[in-house]
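Appendix B, example 12.
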Amino acid sequence: MSEASEFSVQLPLFSGPFRLLADLILDQRIDVCDVAVATITERFLREGGEAAARWSLEEATWFLAVCAVLLDLKVGRLLPRPLPDTEENLLGAQSPDLLYARSLELAAFRRAAENLAVRMAEAATLVPRTIGMPAEFAHVYPDVMERVTADELRRAAVDLLAPAPVVELSHVAPIRASVSDALRALEERLWATPRARFRDLVDGCIEKIEVVVRFLAILELYREGKVDLTQASLFGDIEVSWHGSTQPSTEGSVEGSGDGGISVSERAMQGRAEGAGDG
């Protein structure tokens, strides 16, 4: 680049030809971060156009390449760089005891890995037998189908494919007590006697299922808010208090039903009698 066409810069740190500045920066005699690239760019846009018009292709190419290198250097210096990996950073600034414990765990895992590698290598040498017994040793194993006849196979198939036997339930008496019947009976009883004990409400029940049904009916009345339940002591009598606002309907009730006015207990006894007669 001739002196007449030389592009010069004026900076607080350096004043002179741009070529000399580029050489000093590339030789690391001047820190690229101390050079205001923006100032050089503005001067080039303002005054360098006249000098660049007289440059040859080689001079123009050199100028562009050097500018690109200087920009790359400065960007690399300005961007944050990772800190060097020191021993403390690698260890994570942990306490010595914790680091020692982790080292022991690492040693245990290393030993386990070595043991597994040995076992896997030994297992790789085991090859399963894929062919049958040689003909000269066939007589050693007895024929399991030698004593099986066609008649035995037929009987086994009949037993296997036969339908399952029907279980006879005629001797079992059906449960004739229902929660709906017990609800109607309890409502009528509590409407007449608003306060009663549970033992009085199950008076007349013969089977346990009748007592269970009466208890479920009381729980249903309590859920509907028609009765209150109190118990003074553990395993004591359960007091049932009626709070229903309307008189229970007698339509379809136990006492006024179409069964001749029989109670749940009587109906259960009748069911047992019918079941006994069927058996």
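Residues 179-278 form a domain with the Arc Repressor Mutant, subunit A fold (CATH 1.10.10.580). The two ends are 127 Å apart (CA to CA).
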